[in-house]
Design goal:
The structure holds two protein chains of two kinds. Chain A is an alpha/beta fold. Chain A contains eight helices and nine strands. In chain A, strands 3-2-1-4-5 form a five-stranded mixed beta sheet. Chain A has a four-stranded mixed beta sheet with strand order 8-7-6-9, sandwiched between helices. The longest helix of chain A is centred in the last third of the chain and has 21 residues. The radius of gyration of chain A is 20 Å and the shape is elongated. The mean pLDDT of chain A is about 90. In chain B, about 50% of the residues lie in helices and about 10% in strands. Classes of the chains: A alpha/beta, B alpha/beta. The structure holds adenosine-5'-diphosphate (ADP) and iron/sulfur cluster.
Amino acid sequence: MKGKYFAGIDIGSTMTKVIIYSEGIRGQVIGPTGPEHRHLANIVMEDALAQARIPFEAVDYVVATGYGRINVPFADKQITEISCHARGVLHFFPNAGTVIDIGGQDAKGIKIANNRVVDFVMNDKCAAGTGRFLEVIAETLGVNIKDMGPLSLKARNKVKISSICTIFAEQEVVSQLSEGIPVEDIIAGLHEAIAGRAFRMASKLKIEGDVVFTGGVAKNTGMVKALESHLGRPVYICREPLITGAMGAALLGKELVEKAMESGKAIKIKERKLTTARVF
Amino acid sequence: MADKEKTKKFINRLKSRNIVRPMVNKMYAEGVTAANEGRPLAWSMVNWWEGDIVMRAMGVTPVYPENYGTVCASTGMAQKYQAICDAEGFPTHLCGYSRNHIGYAAEMKKLGKIPPDAPLGGMAEPTFMLGSGIACDTRFKWFQALRQYYDVPVWTIDTPSYDHTEDIDSDIHEHNIRHKVKELERFIEFLENLLGKKIDMDLVEDYLENQEKVFQLWWEINELRKAKPCPMHSRDFWTLMVPGYYMTYDKDALNLYHQVYEEVKARTDAGIGAVTPEKYRLMFAELPPWHSLDFFEKLAERGWNFVVESQGYHPPEPMSLKTGDSVLERLTRWTYWVNVGHIRKAKEKNYPLFGPVQYYYNWAREYQVDGFITHSLLSCRTATFWLPHAANILKEELLVPSMNMEGDIVDFTVFDPDLVLKNAEAFEESMDYHRGERKRKGLEW
Ligand SMILES: Nc1ncnc2c1ncn2[C@@H]1O[C@H](COP(=O)(O)OP(=O)(O)O)[C@@H](O)[C@H]1O
Ligand code: SF4
């Protein structure tokens, strides 16, 4: 659809991501959600609009997704992140069959066929097994989250982390540090534990087709390696794994508008203003 | 429900269900009155009718702590009793029903009287307790544990392990019936010794006849729910199951089901559904979140009609009775049949599944469901361990997808309704996909 603009906004527990789409990505911004920035979803949107060089009013349809999607006053529609992730992944990997998404506060597995969500599983009951867990431990170890992956690849004897609870795992890590175990061996052990959990969760879906790993944790090369070894096959990663939800949101918005136009019905568009979102 | 805010209503509830509440109130009030008047009162596990009929015929008034768990959950009192149970040192991974009741009993013992804030007037101190070997070990261990508060006799009616495909073998079936009859005879002997009177078998037979009529009607009502749109939602089922579960001896129960039948039949004839429009037909396993039943309104708003549920709460399907059976044989056959009837049915296709799984497998086709919602309970193995198996079989063989929600029957703190609602949207996508697949593969719905 020439000349039309679609926006997808994915308000995650840690990151807010925006895509502006019009025959290709015109704007793409990732900014933090959490605590001090919680009201700033509109700012992330403004940055993306600036990249696309259009005013907000020029956007034809806005779809919000993610944990904070309900409270976005400037969205035309909310769509669950499961559908958005699936759609976004298919855009980048048309042969995808299974998605493993590990974000800041949950982990999910999605199975796709014929462009649709066929099945999904979710773990959001506890921080263990999520990006938050890695953040907590990175802080304890005094390591930047971005360095966790590369460091873990240097491990020679990855340790076994026996606790599945974030708090206890933190204590375990502290005691391993005091025993003089190298940091990289500890991190590799953590990745192994989280990848094992994600693998067991996704196995409930009977993994088929190409496996795509998304979410912030997919940026961590150590996690990618650990997950691949559990799966016994390579996983596909987007150049920017954080963006699939927002991408899917924009594309689903586009499809809604197209469908409405085909059937000759006008799509409902709200009076909307680019104002602060209430995330909590 | 913990959060008492008013939920908008989208389920077209049956009017006749309003008769149930006074019946339940009466059941609890009669328990307290019996105790006050010095008549025997039993705390009884659900025993699938056999023990109930015998107790009633002996003039015992039973009250049911498991049902009381649902009452306390829906009135918000369960949290208090569970906390007391925990403080008494019982493990928190016991099921919600047992924690609620143990906490209640401990509180009553401490106060020396029924707690004044006990829902529905509470349950008075029992003359004895009746455990049951059906379903799980908790259902007799918990009463044994309660003797530290109330040192009264605890009797358990044993049951052979049922739900097995081996039961299709008629020798095993008849052997099990004989065992169960013996168990009932011993229970009667126990009651006669305890109460110093003889049982009136004519009364047992009268009650049994009433029960058979209740079963037949209650079964027919659920059959009517196969209609599209389904005229009766699971919420009404969960309300209406109480008389069919605990009061089958009672003429009032029979009268109730007559009225329900008329109402459901009228709706079926007029094409009136419990949810309009009925976009999706859902099946629910197994025990519901008693603390949050209003939550189903939010799913109804999306067009989700729950058309069949909770196999453990359903009446047995009709069976032909053997001529020459004694009253006790007949009585016990029903209890046994409710657990094995569906397996028997599967013999035709030479593919019997584990009992509850077989139920849902049969129902998915008969009720033509779009989705299967499993409620995995953190504290109840019996109602949980087979859920993934059922979900897999339905998906693989019948192309019916499932969605799991984690929770507890009594403890609302482990249930996250927002998450379920959030996932509901994605599940609709999955149901749409599977609907197309079923069509493509030539399944009948
Ligand atoms: N550059 C990075 N390297 C490694 N991990 C990262 C990086 N950026 C983010 N993460 C991980 O991703 C998580 C956030 O993922 P995200 O998918 O944005 O979650 P949400 O959608 O819940 O905000 C963080 O908790 C962190 O563990
Ligand atoms: S079957 Fe489950 S809910 Fe019922 S008593 Fe046993 S453990 Fe508790």
